[in-house]
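Hi, here's the filled form for the chain we discussed.

Project: internal
Contact: R.S.
Residues: 329
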Amino acid sequence: MRKVVLCILCIFTVLACYQLNSGNKAQASAQSEIAMELTTGTVLLEGNADARRPMASTTKILTAIIILEDCDLDEVIQVPDEAVGVEGSSIYLKKGEKIDIRDLLYGLMLRSGNDSAAALAIHHSKSIKAFAEVMTERAKKMGAVNSNFKNPSGLPDEEHYTTARDLCKIACYAMRNDQFKKIVETTDYTGKFRTYTNKNKMLRLYEWANGVKTGYTLKAGRCLVSSAVRNGMDIVCVVLNCPDMYERSCAIFDNCFNKYKLLNLSSNKVFMCNKVLCKLKENKSIIVESNKTIDYKVSPYKKITDNAVGELKVYSENSLIFNEKLYSI
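And the returned structure, exactly as it came back:
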């Protein structure tokens, strides 16, 4: 009887260890990862987010937003020789072919065309090298200070790298652009010159997904930058070198959406401070934990300066998470 009991205990122990190790493996499946709320830039989850890594075709997020900001999408160009037969994924541009910038952009983001990336880069900066310099400089302005770009597509290069944090900042910046957002949430596109179906399976796998870009090379592994909107909160997620990139990203989204919510503080909301009606100067948003009690406190100033009569303090179970000046109406 004792042997039977010991045998059963051993089986349960093995199963428990298997489940534990499986869970740890799932949690650590990405070499680097991060999730950031779009409106506030608040980091909700991160792991090894500052390690420099290759990012494959997720590079094209930066390429696309630069083109959107600097170029006329209706302009028709002739495909340069350097953009024909480019290594890797392609929209099969032909020498001398005429195509507009819009169709090239959709081909860049929906089909991950390396030839499209080359054509756009050369159109913008006359050469891929010059465009890569623009990319690095523009990325810094977006807060991505630990990245370096050598090409517009993400083809392997020892000096072409980013971090999960930098890439997430770039993606958040891009997702605030309505045109960019429209492109990456499109599942099927028909343009003047081309028709595409989006390769990003996340748009079909996760109910609330609205972008953005996949990537893969042998060195970079499977990379995914994704975005999802749920209950008014928009989260951008990056996983780099992640074999189960879709599953891991879905798990990250579920975790963040369940744990956090976006609290909007309107500038139209009126507070009373020492019998003076007052309000915030502008709308503010903060991230709060869903299961925590939120309290508001108005603290008056002893001396009024520039119409600021006091400040609004927001607490999450006695922890101060927000404070901002209140101005008399």
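Let me know if anything looks off before we file it.
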